[in-house]
Design a protein that fits this description.
This protein is an alpha/beta fold. The chain is 51% helix and 11% strand. The chain has two domains: 179 residues, Rossmann fold; 141 residues, N-(1-d-carboxylethyl)-l-norvaline Dehydrogenase, domain 2 (Orthogonal Bundle), CATH 1.10.1040. The protein is globular.
Length: 332
């Protein structure tokens, strides 16, 4: 089997290595020529130095080389890049193989989840090929073959089962779930809550505060997922609660680390530069608030993160406002 892989970041590298170790030929594309040159030369990702990249992973800057005559396409780009990248893919090939989305986010202004973006680009007749993979899975642990469980989904049962078979290993367990929009929604929203938890820890508010943010954050996620006709119960699983836990509690989490740095006085640009990778929650926070306003849904944590990031509100004052909100029934 030949696999085309889009994106050579840490997560893209981790999954490409997993697939290569199963014996698949993997052609990895990235738009950054310096990154491709370094990976070809050193066979090491600079942020994953413990793993040597297998010989059956080929790197290229030519998108056509990664998507033409492959059995499956796997994506690990960014919220900002996904529409432009797949618009190019659509111009290069007549899609006849599954696409597995692994990035997490909601597009600003259109308020579309990534499967919805691809459905828009490739049209309804190609919808059956769209799938996703999501869940609590740090690249730094996956490359070490530490036990990991995730969820896959698709609009088509056969494609979903194919994704399960391709990615499943003795160390990387893949559960199927038919709710593709719910799976993707959980993966997108948890990044916002991780920023909140990073800020909370950075301010020294303690475990009680973080537990409250995670729990109330999950409640916001469940309310807002209904706007996508997703099943709130999906968010009780690996792509919701599971991903929320790992992203809010670990220093491997870019979004958590971003929040921690932000609480220490870094601005957005400085914090992202320090982390050295895309921080999806910074982008998705805007989309999620747009979605909530469109449907008149109360999302106080999401609103607070937007206020802190984009309105220069003091995080401590925002916490005070959250604690002084009118008391309601827990699940309203």
């Amino acid at each position: 089997m030949k696999i085309g892989y889009l994106g050579a970041g840490t997560w893209g590298t981790a999954l490409a290595v997993l697939l290569a170790n199963k014996g698949y030929q993997v052609v990895v594309w990235d738009r950054n020529p310096n990154r491709i040159k370094q990976l070809n030369l050193t066979r090491k990702h600079p942020k994953l130095q413990d793993v040597t990249i297998p010989a059956n992973i080929i790197y290229t800057t030519q998108l056509k080389e990664a998507v033409e005559d492959v059995d499956i396409i796997v994506e690990s780009v960014t919220s900002l890049g996904i529409r432009s990248v797949f618009t190019q893919v659509n111009s290069l090939i007549d899609l006849k193989c599954p696409i597995v989305l692994t990035s997490k986010g909601i597009e600003q202004n259109t308020l579309l989840l990534f499967p919805e973006i691809l459905n828009q680009i490739f049209k309804e007749e190609k919808k059956k090929y769209i799938g996703c993979l999501s869940g609590p899975s740090h690249a730094e642990e996956v490359v070490k073959n530490l036990p990991t469980s995730v969820v896959c989904s698709s609009y088509d049962k056969d494609v979903m089962n194919q994704i399960c078979e391709i990615f499943n290993t003795p160390h990387f367990r893949v559960y199927p779930n038919f709710d593709i929009l719910g799976v993707c929604f959980g993966g997108a929203m948890k990044n916002i809550m991780a920023i909140a938890c990073g800020i909370s820890d950075g301010l020294g508010f303690g475990d009680n505060s973080k537990a409250a943010l995670m729990t109330r954050g999950l409640h916001e996620m469940k309310k807002l997922c209904l706007t996508k006709n997703a099943d709130p119960n999906t968010l009780n699983g690996l792509s919701g609660l599971g991903d929320l836990c790992v992203t809010c509690l670990s220093n491997f989490s870019r979004n958590y680390r971003f929040g921690h740095l932000f609480s220490k006085g870094y601005n957005i640009k400085q914090a992202i530069s320090e982390i050295g990778m895309v921080v999806e929650g910074v982008y998705t926070a805007v989309s999620a608030l747009q979605l909530a306003k469109k449907y008149n849904i109360s999302v106080p944590i999401t609103q607070a993160i937007n206020a802190v990031l984009y309105q220069d509100l003091n995080p401590k004052n925002v916490v005070k406002l959250l604690m002084q909100r009118t008391i309601k029934n827990e699940f309203e």
